[in-house]
Amino acid sequence: MTRRRSGPRVRQETPDDKAALVFLGPWLIGAVVLVVGPLLASLYLAFTDYNLLQDPNFVGLDNFSRMLGDERLHHSLAVTFTYVIVGVPAQLVVALALAVALDRGMRGLAFYRSAFYLPSMLGSSVAIAVLWRLIFGQAGLFNGLLGAVGIDTSTSWIADPDTALWAIILLHVWTFGSPMVIFLAGLRQIPREFYEAASTDGASPWRQFRSVTLPLLTPIIFFNLVLAIINAFQSFTQAFVVSGGTGGPSDSTLFYTLYLYQEGFGAFRMGYASALAWLLVVIVGAFTLINFWASKYWVHYDD
Amino acid sequence: MTTDTITTPATTTGPRTPPELRRHRPSVRTRVFRVLRQALMIAVVVVALYPILWMIVSSLRPDGHIFGNPSLVPNTFEVSNYTSGWNALGAPFSTYLLNSALVVAGAIVGNLISCSMAAYGFARLRFRFQRPAFVVMLLMIMIPIHVVIVPQYVIWAQAGLINTVWPLIVPKFLATDGFFVFLMIQFIRGLPKELDEAARIDGAGHGRIFCQILLPLMTPALATTAIFTFIWTWNDFFSQLIYLTDPNLYTVPVALRSFVDAQSQSSYGAMFAMSVVSVLPLVVAFGVGQKYLVRGIATTGGK
């Protein structure tokens, strides 16, 4: 009897502060020293001329007014927005199409899923970026394939400012495997009865896709979209390797994070780089908020 | 195809086909459709994996035969690409593989220990400031690395630890990957609380409950964490590029990138060879941990 009284219920009410300090101690140190502290520090540095060697001087809004006239920044924003606005939807459409094609009792599903996931896993590696550079180079695989179908060209697609970005967008689309796996998991949740009912009513496969699959999948599409946009804004490796770290030719692959890296760790304008980082946070945050706001109009939740 | 009386093998229908459909042999139209669908999917797999296969085949070709040659037939086995690539940089490639392995091993151990402890704290303990702490943890998932990288760099520079592996490993021991903390919190919340309470009645403290009861049950979440940490750290380029500038400390991605800058047109075979070597551990990890990987992506939306 006494045991029951001093049992778990009662102990739950006394806080486990000491135990929490032990279990969350490492996390707390990391959160304070490596995240929250640096977050505040970079907010401060954004208003300074810090260059790593000398103490930072407060310069007010100088970094932000410099942004207004910084043409490389404007260019890198245009490049990054193009990449996000074209690359993300294109990748998700491919992912969704293949997930739907694989969903209905396809034989060999496990094999296809693995095969399609592989590019996704390797896609962010330097090795694949190197490969891409060679595929779209002057004597690369792409021109070889064009030659095989009778189009002879000696264009280097990554050396041409009009096409270099598109080669990197294609690389992004190629990594459709991981959103596809998420779509497959979502498709699995759709009750079979809905399709049976639709097909009894004479709905064509396209109509079933439009009226059953798509609406019920909107929460997953939304999830993929939010994640993909946040990640795409932070893309770095591919543009860095394909352009040899320059963002060229003619800044045509100057991704935002690449410009930030050049300013911060190339030119050591760390105050300006911090300001750029905060602008990135604002942009990504705004996109995410807009996404959540817009979701009210197209995402269906069961309730 | 003629209809006959032999019953349809169950394998031609998916596992989710309702039983009443299984009694009939699928119509000719359905079967043609299925064959076409398989053929189409195989074609998509070939297209998707073409660049990777081409990279492997090209790594075995003499330099003069790589470019403009889209064929996937491995007609030569130029193993010398591997030997020359292995020794093409300042140190043998094994140095870079070992450096990467060290960073990856440290990151995995760090994440497994610190994230599981933090997750236990958040999921099972009651403590003061629990809500704000949880909000900070969620914030850590969302903020881009670029906004904290400058102050973090300053911290490591002042500690004299640039050009060591510590800036890449220590944060993992401090549970800064909020993503994995969250993953494990969700997992622990799914485990029955009665287990803890029974152990507590038997006199076990939080340390024993965590180590002897919850950790063994958390194997799937730990495996998912380990494999994602492996892939992301192995592919990580941005922070390794920033913290490792001494060529002897280069990890695989940084070394591979310097390879691109250093090499002339004539040694592409060697570059392909080292690219293949650099993705090999990923492919092996993929093979071993596929189950956890697919489950992990489906539940968390990892890259």
Automatic annotation (TrEMBL), chain A:
CDD domains per UniProt: TM_PBP2 (cd06261)
Transmembrane segments: 21-47, 77-102, 114-135, 164-187, 214-233, 273-294
Short name of any one Pfam family annotated for the protein: BPD_transp_1
Domain ABC transmembrane type-1 span(s) in chain numbering: 77-291
Subcellular location: Cell membrane
Keywords carried by this UniProt record: Cell membrane, Membrane, Transmembrane, Transmembrane helix, Transport
Alphabetical list of InterPro entries matching this protein: ABC_transporter_permease, MetI-like, MetI-like_sf
SUPFAM superfamilies to which the protein is assigned, alphabetical: MalF N-terminal region-like, MetI-like
Coiled-coil annotated spans: none
Membrane association type: Multi-pass membrane protein
Highest taxon listed in the record's lineage: Bacteria
Family stated for the protein in its record: Belongs to the binding-protein-dependent transport system permease family.
Protein name: Sugar ABC transporter permease
Organism encoding this protein: Myceligenerans indicum
UniProtKB/TrEMBL annotation, chain B:
Keywords assigned by UniProt, alphabetized: Cell membrane, Membrane, Transmembrane, Transmembrane helix, Transport
Localization per record: Cell membrane
SUPFAM superfamilies named among the record's database cross-references: MetI-like
The ABC transmembrane type-1 domain, residue ranges: 97-289
Cross-referenced InterPro entries: MetI-like, MetI-like_sf
Compositionally biased tracts (Low complexity): 1-15
Topology within the bilayer: Multi-pass membrane protein
Parts of the chain that traverse the membrane: 39-57, 96-122, 134-156, 168-188, 209-234, 268-288
Region ranges (Disordered): 1-22
Pfam families attached to this UniProt entry: BPD_transp_1 (PF00528)
Family (UniProt): Belongs to the binding-protein-dependent transport system permease family.
Protein name: Carbohydrate ABC transporter permease
Species whose genome carries this gene: Myceligenerans indicum
High-level lineage: Bacteria, Bacillati, Actinomycetota, Actinomycetes, Micrococcales
